[in-house]
């Protein structure tokens, strides 16, 4: 009898036996082992649904992550709001929780989607908006990454979903998940890598002077787009304002990146938006790749700094024996497209977050370079380029 009472008390005081909270619960100084302890979602009835106050959002052009689909949400304490900035990440209040859930669609008719080792490529038209959560009928949940704004700044926490999709566990050291990617008749085996906590800073520490972690996508130019909401599509920044999540937004002249898949935007705008979201958190004046001299953020306009006829600083074998970062009119002679297409860890760019090449992204940047005018006429570059034409 005494043993049963002690066991019950141990259960009551352990997180494994208590019922997950049914509302968002901010942890100011503790990193819960289970994602459910944050009270962000309910997983039931074949759906994962957000709790009250969580707002789904999307980027005009998202970052590529091995063709994973992403469901993004943000939550702030009642009465709190972020402060608008035209260029950098918004100034978010203490207590903010940003989530990004990575998932794949599984083959139709899969008996156990969460256990499926095969995932299929989906077109943008078939993505779920996530406004009311996700239908898990043909979905394999992979991981949910949290960015939590605490008193000392942002903290990144990677949670990996379990075999039955009921909860996710904090994996500080990351994880590797073998999958088979199905693109029509083509099948590719790859290992999906969940970053460890230190690797999160590799992208999110966008200023070498502070090395502080900050959001990448939560900037005006990435969020200025229409998104489904109550009553129909609404501009996403206006939606944040209406919900009380954002203040200080000017009435006009908001920065805006193109949708990389919309041909009406024009190839240059599409490619610059793609390079901005995928590369500029490192390739900018204060980023980790600042010494490369190749800056790919949206505000850079100097052709040389954008890579035109610029020799690499220290790319080693990552050059692919090419002489310049970008050779106008010649993507096959450009280092940029070579590194984007590579899957060699010592050559590929980005260095983290992918094992597969993004065929569509490479094709877009290839077209962008093909349309550029000019010629590289310095050092031995022209002769080497001519020999490869």
Explain this structure.
- This protein has helices at residues 2-12, 197-204, 220-223, 236-242, 267-279, 335-341, 359-371, 381-388, and strands at 41-44, 47-50, 55-57, 69-75, 82-83, 97-105, 118-120, 134-135, 139-150, 153-161, 168-170, 175-183, 186-194, 226-229, 232-235, 246-247.
- It is of the alpha+beta class and 389 residues long.
- The strands form five sheets. It has a six-stranded antiparallel sheet with strand order 3-4-6-9-10-11, covered by helices on one side. It has a three-stranded antiparallel sheet with strand order 1-2-8, with no helix packed on it. Strands 7-12-13 form a three-stranded mixed sheet, with no helix packed on it.
- The longest helix has 13 residues, at 267-279.
- The protein is globular, with a radius of gyration of 22 Å.
Counting H and I runs of at least 4 residues, what is the number of helices?
Answer: 8
Number of strands: 16
Radius of gyration: 22 Å
Strand order of the largest sheet: 3-4-6-9-10-11
Could you tell me how far the N terminus lies from the C terminus, measured between alpha carbons in angstroms?
A: 85 Å
- What fraction of residues sit in β-strands? 15-25%
- As an assembly, this protein is single chain
Low-confidence stretches: 1-16, 380-389
Helix content: 10-25%
Largest sheet: 6 strands, antiparallel
pLDDT averaged residue by residue: 89
Task: Note the overall shape.
Answer: globular
What is the H/E order? HEEEEEEEEEEEEEHHEEHEHHHH
Computed structural class: alpha+beta
Reconstruct the topology from this structure.
Layout: H1 2-12, E1 41-44, E2 47-50, E3 55-57, E4 69-75, E5 82-83, E6 97-105, E7 118-120, E8 134-135, E9 139-150, E10 153-161, E11 168-170, E12 175-183, E13 186-194, H2 197-204, H3 220-223, E14 226-229, E15 232-235, H4 236-242, E16 246-247, H5 267-279, H6 335-341, H7 359-371, H8 381-388
Helix pairs in contact: 5-7
């Amino acid at each position: 009898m005494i043993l049963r009472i002690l066991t019950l008390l141990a259960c009551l005081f352990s997180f494994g036996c208590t019922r997950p909270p049914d509302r968002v619960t901010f942890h100011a100084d503790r990193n819960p082992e289970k994602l459910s302890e944050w009270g962000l979602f309910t997983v039931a009835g074949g759906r994962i649904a957000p709790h009250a106050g969580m707002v789904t959002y999307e980027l005009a052009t998202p970052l590529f992550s091995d063709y994973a689909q992403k469901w993004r949400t943000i939550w702030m304490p009642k009465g709190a709001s972020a402060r608008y900035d035209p260029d950098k990440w918004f100034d978010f209040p203490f207590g903010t929780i940003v989530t990004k859930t990575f998932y794949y669609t599984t083959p139709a008719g899969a008996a156990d989607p969460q256990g499926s080792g095969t995932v299929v490529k989906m077109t943008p038209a078939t993505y779920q908006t996530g406004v009311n959560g996700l239908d898990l009928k043909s979905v394999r949940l992979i991981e949910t990454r949290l960015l939590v704004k605490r008193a000392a700044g942002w903290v990144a926490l990677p949670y990996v979903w379990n075999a039955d999709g009921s909860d996710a566990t904090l994996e500080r050291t990351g994880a590797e998940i073998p999958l088979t990617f199905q693109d029509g008749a083509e099948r590719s085996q790859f290992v999906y890598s969940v970053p460890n906590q230190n690797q999160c800073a590799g992208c999110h520490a966008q200023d070498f002077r502070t090395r502080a972690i900050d959001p990448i996508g939560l900037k005006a130019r990435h969020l200025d787009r229409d998104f489904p909401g109550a009553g129909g599509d609404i501009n996403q920044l206006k939606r944040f304002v209406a919900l009380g999540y954002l203040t200080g937004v000017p009435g006009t002249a908001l920065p805006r990146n193109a949708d990389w898949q919309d041909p009406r935007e024009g190839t240059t705008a599409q490619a610059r938006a793609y390079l901005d979201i995928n590369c500029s958190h490192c390739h900018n004046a204060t980023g980790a790749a600042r010494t490369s001299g190749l800056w790919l953020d949206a505000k850079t306009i100097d052709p040389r700094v954008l890579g035109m006829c610029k020799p690499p600083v220290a790319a080693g074998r990552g050059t692919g024996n090419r002489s310049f970062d970008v050779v106008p009119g010649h993507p096959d002679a450009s280092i940029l497209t070579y590194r984007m297409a590579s899957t060699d860890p010592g050559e590929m760019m980005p260095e983290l977050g992918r094992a597969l090449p993004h065929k569509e992204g490479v094709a877009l940047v290839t077209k962008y370079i093909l349309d550029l005018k000019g010629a590289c006429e310095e050092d031995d570059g022209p002769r080497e380029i001519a020999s490869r034409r």
